[in-house]
Every structure is written in C-alpha cells, then in structure tokens.
Design goal:
This protein has 275 residues and is mostly beta strands. Helices cover 7% and strands 44% of the residues. A four-stranded antiparallel sheet has the order 1-2-3-4, covered by helices on one side. It has a four-stranded antiparallel sheet with strand order 5-6-7-8, with no helix packed on it. The longest helix has 20 residues.
Length: 275
C-alpha cells in the first residue's frame, strides 16, 4: 500500500477518535464523511468540516470558525474544482469555497437533515434529504430549481447519466428522474435503499442494493435504464446478506463489489447470468 494511502487512513481514524471524544451536543458515532482530491482531504464530522493537507495532515481550514452544538455534519462532502457542497443535520445545505472554507451560499428550505452525498451536473446540485425530497439547487447562487418527492428518507447519492438522475429511497423504490424533476420510472425493491446505486460503465445497467424484510440485505442489481428489475442470483437463489444496515456497490476492473458495515466485501462478475 502506498504511503499516501496509509497516511489518509491514519488521519481518518485519528479524526474519528478525536472528534468523538471532544464533540458536544448531538453525537455522531459512525465514521465521518470523507472526500479527497489530488492534494487535500475533506472531513465532515460533528460540528466541523475540515480541509487537511493530504501530504502531512495539517489543517488548511475548518468550517464554521466556531462550532455549534445545534449544527452537526455527517454527509460526505461533494468536492469540485473550486467548491465544497455539503448538508448538515440542521436542515441547511452549504456551498463553501474550496481554498478558504468561507461560505458562498446556504439553502435553508428543506424540512429534514442531510445524510447523503450530493451530486452535481451541468451547473445544478442535487441534494438528497431526510424529508424524502431530492433538492435541485442552482450551483452558482443556491436558488431552488425543483424538488422531487419520494415516500421516505433519501440517504444515498444520486447518480447521473444520459440526462437522467437515478436514486434509491428508503421507501423501497429506485427512481429515474429527468433533469426537469419529472419521474421517468420507478422500480420496487425488496427493502429500503440506503447506499448509493452504481451505474455500469456504458450506462446501460444500474446496480442497486436494498434492506430486505427483517433488515436482511438483498442485492438487487440490474435495474436496467427502462426500470426492469432482476436480482443477482447465485446457484439459482437471490443473493442475501443477513442483518446489515448500510452498503454501496463499487465498480472494479472486471466485477462489481458490494461493501457493507460488517467489514465484508462481496465480489460479483460484471455480467451475471440472467434469471
């Protein structure tokens, strides 16, 4: 493993322990939201967002200047060339200057908090919210363009391809949404979708995971872009994982892997046999 990767992992663990011990007010006991670019590491946890130098771990900046117990950050930051986009648990979504950490704008119109990472496409930020809405915000000024309502929490990052937004919801559905905020299709899952879906490299398949009945995990990939759902099967049976509560698919060179909170990784061939 490269020294840079070891340093990032060490920083990640150190920040988790430090901020868990020092935080006041609402307590976040899971891993912090983490994002990186070519030079820096961005960590969202408890009452602050930190920008760290990726080479030595020094703090470039922290937002806000003085933390408040009423405002907690948990979602992974969305990092672009010049900005950081992130929501908090006080129902506010922020755009920060990437270099200085200064706030550029904030949106306060949601009725719930932000746990999922946002996505950006063609000047629009798509922010999933715990009130069940996907918020489309103008990236320049934070004005609301539209909302798309689902039946339950949105905890996963939207994925965008072919001018279509794909997202899984805790209401047991995966959705395809137009850039104008209109539903194209929805596909029922075996349970709530908490992790971000994953598009295949050619944009023809959407891999979605869900929490099935009894909080068991049923991997439900192969939601094609027409909305037809086919579960992955092993020896003719749906692939099941017992009693896990969070996972996301990750695309590798020749396969798709699903990682989840029990520290297990499951590898699946890129083109499984159709059921």
């Amino acid at each position: 493993m490269k020294k840079t990767h070891l340093l990032l992992i060490t920083l990640f663990i150190w920040l988790t322990l430090l901020m868990s011990a020092c935080a006041t007010g609402p307590r976040v006991t899971d891993a912090p939201g983490l994002a990186v670019d070519d030079t820096d590491v961005f960590v969202a946890y408890s009452t602050y967002i930190f920008s760290l130098d990726g080479a030595n771990g020094s703090v470039n900046w922290a937002y806000p200047e003085k933390g408040s117990a009423a405002v907690v950050f948990y979602a992974p930051p969305l990092v672009t060339d010049d900005a950081i986009y992130i929501g908090d648990l006080a129902n506010t979504f922020h755009k920060l200057d990437k270099t200085s950490g200064e706030e550029i704008w904030s949106y306060t119109g949601s009725q719930g908090f932000y746990l999922g990472q946002a996505a950006i496409y063609d000047g629009v930020v798509y922010a999933p919210n715990n009130d069940g809405n996907l918020y489309a915000l103008d990236a320049d000024n934070g004005s609301l363009l539209w909302t798309f309502k689902t039946g339950h929490y949105l905890w996963s990052q939207p994925q965008i391809a072919n001018d279509t937004i794909f997202i899984g919801s805790m209401d047991h559905f995966a959705y395809a949404i137009s850039l104008a905020g209109e539903e194209i299709w929805s596909s029922e899952l075996a349970g709530a979708a908490t992790g971000a879906p994953l598009l295949s490299e050619d944009g023809s398949m959407l891999f979605v995971g869900s929490l099935a009945t009894g909080w068991s995990l049923w991997i439900q990939p192969r939601v094609t872009l027409s909305g037809h759902l086919r579960p992955i099967r092993v020896s003719g049976e749906p692939l099941l994982f017992p009693k896990v509560n969070w996972f996301s698919p990750i695309r590798l060179a020749t396969s798709t892997s699903f990682r989840q909170k029990m520290a297990k990784v499951f590898g699946i061939q890129r083109s499984p046999a159709r059921s």
